[in-house]
Amino acid sequence: xxxxxxxxxxxxxxxxxxxxxxxxxxxxxxxxxxxxxxxxxxxxxxxxxxxxxxxxxxxxxxxxxxxxxxxxxxxxxxxxxxxxxxxxxxxxxxxxxxxxxxxxxxxxxxxxxxxxxxxxxxx
Amino acid sequence: xxxxxxxxxxxxxxxxxxxxxxxxxxxxxxxxxxxxxxxxxxxxxxxxxxxxxxxxxxxxxxxxxxxxxxxxxxxxxxxxxxxxxxxxxxxxxxxxxxxxxxxxxxxxxxxxxxxxxxxxxxxxxxxxxxxxxxxxxxxxxxxxxxxxxxxxxxxxxxxxxxxxxxxxxxxxxxxxxxxxxxxxxxxxxxxxxxxxxxxxxxxxxxxxxxxxxxxxxxxxxxxxxxxxxxxxxxxxxxxxxxxxxxxxxxxxxxxxxxxxxxxxxxxxxxxxxxxxxxxxxxxxxx
Lengths: 123, 286
Description:
The complex is a heterodimer of chains A (about 120) and B (about 290).
Chain A: H1 2-13, H2 16-21, E1 28-33, E2 36-43, E3 46-52, E4 62-66, H3 68-74, H4 86-91, E5 95-99, H5 101-106, H6 108-115
Parallel strand pairs in A: 1-4
Antiparallel strand pairs in A: 1-2, 2-3, 4-5
Chain B: E1 9-17, E2 20-29, E3 34-38, H1 49-52, H2 55-58, E4 62-66, H3 89-102, E5 109-113, H4 115-126, E6 133-137, H5 159-167, H6 177-188, H7 194-202, H8 208-211, E7 222-227, H9 235-243, E8 249-253, H10 260-263, H11 265-285
Parallel strand pairs in B: 3-4, 3-5, 5-6, 6-7, 7-8
Antiparallel strand pairs in B: 1-2, 2-4
Helix pairs in contact in B: 5-6
């Protein structure tokens, strides 16, 4: 998972469009995949830290909690219905959003497009 | 010659609706029996641009799509600057009836998507004799909000951009990118508080549930279309709704989402043409 996140980080930093979208986003986000926690620290849209948890000392603004199978489906080139969006995963009961959901919604396009960076190219 | 002139023509209709003067923008194309098209919450009649340009449809039908007041090129009514926009089932019904009357449409087919589909079913239950059929797209009896509608109207963030980011969850990954973003642009550019005001009725008024059994499909057919990728009105929601209407038919559209006519027009058009054929068959049988 850490390798995947590093790949997403590289894609983010190579995307002028995404860095522009995230230029006001400086927050730490918890991504929890089953029992594995990752603290993603963004600074003006750049992902400057990918720290494995658990850590009770790391404050985070919002968190997305899911399972590896759901993420694999989410990252498929053309996901099945429900697996095509993080809110779809929530609706299927395969994802949960915690923390400051309004902050997520204010930055929703940036965060969704960041999460989609793990997706393989559409055939 | 450079340039391509589309057959769509836009005009304005001024009508009184519930005591207020409303200047309604509408577009139309084609000739024949009328089809009156309703857009979703937070958007406008541009969602119907591909059907309005579809010669197979317009060669035998007059297709009309209008912008609800506060949406698209229909200005809000006088005094809007101190008013909180909150759509109601009653105001929506009155608007559809006023436009149909103002344009002198004789028993049009009513095709509505999302909140437009919901109101199409309300009209099927209450004003069946004024329409010749109902195509209810992404339509169901009721769903409570899975989001907070107040997110979309606040001074510290752009409601349109947040709304677009949220509703992108309802667009199929099969949709071509260009049409996905055309669809989202309408949400991004909607007026402040308009998406919230549409959702206030859509997510709180459950009066349709008790009216479904009153819909008489022998007097005007009802066909429901639902996209498999629609998270707001899921196929399960649409099936439940169709099952409560005696004689209603339903088609699940595998590769489509909540805005099928706009997000993926090529995939949608066979389903829409099939729906029109069902309306024609029912008319012939009657």
